[in-house]
Specification:
225 residues, 6-stranded parallel beta sheet, alpha/beta, SIR2/SIRT2 'Small Domain'
């Protein structure tokens, strides 16, 4: 089977009611990013940071995968599908996708503040001050904050190098280092960009100007004959 690599971003989850950060009316309008998504914010006001992610987690527990997520999962019948997502939700997994690499962490997971290798899955939407890891330190969201390294980026680059088909969906390609992953794709493979808006890129690709739920279906009509 050919390797189909999908790079997904916030736009695909927006159809499930998950707010995007950068669109008008998105999360950045309600919060200063550096006050809720940076190591400095955590040191300064951990209660605010926890509240911010609790709100997002609550919405995620209420959300369901949409046809975009489900459509990608269905491609596993025809391809070896590997998803690299900038999203911290678990909607790809809940839609049935088997191989999902989260670049920026996972909202339903938390980690130790003294040992980042101690990672736990939450079965509730709230994380509060005083909840500790097994080593006795406060738990924090398992999220890559601004100013922190992206541990999974090297693994993601290796996945991209083996792509036979590359699909970008729901991302404006403005967030680095994720946006640079396209540069690791082999030359001359088909690249598809699914987005309802005009996206500026110097990568030669086929634009499917649709929201994810419709664009993924159109992609299947192109790839599966």
């Amino acid at each position: 089977m050919k390797n189909l690599v999908v790079l997904s971003g916030a736009g695909i989850s927006a159809e499930s009611g998950i707010k995007t950060f950068r669109e008008m009316g998105g999360l950045w309008d309600e919060y200063d990013v550096m006050e809720v998504a940076s190591p400095e914010a955590w040191k300064r006001n951990p209660e605010l940071v926890l509240r911010f992610y609790n709100e997002r987690r609550k919405k995620l527990f209420e959300a369901e995968p949409n046809e975009g997520h489900i459509g990608i999962a269905k491609h596993e019948k025809y391809f070896n599908v590997q998803i690299i997502t900038q999203n911290v939700d678990d909607l790809h997994e809940r839609a049935g996708s088997s191989n999902v690499l989260h670049l920026h962490g996972e909202l339903k997971k938390v980690q130790s503040t003294i040992d980042p290798n101690l990672i736990y899955t939450l079965d509730k939407w709230e994380l509060n001050l005083g909840e500790l890891c097994e080593k006795g330190s406060q738990l924090r969201p398992h999220i890559v904050w601004f100013g922190e390294a992206v541990p999974a980026i090297n693994e993601a680059a290796k996945i991209c190098e083996k792509a036979d088909v590359f699909v970008v969906v729901g991302t404006s390609l403005n967030v680095y280092p994720a946006a640079g992953l396209l540069n690791y794709a082999p030359n001359n493979i088909p690249i598809f960009l699914i987005d309802p808006n005009d996206v500026s890129t110097n990568i030669k690709c086929t634009l499917i100007k649709e929201k994810a739920s419709i664009g993924i279906q159109k992609l299947k009509n192109i790839l599966v004959t």
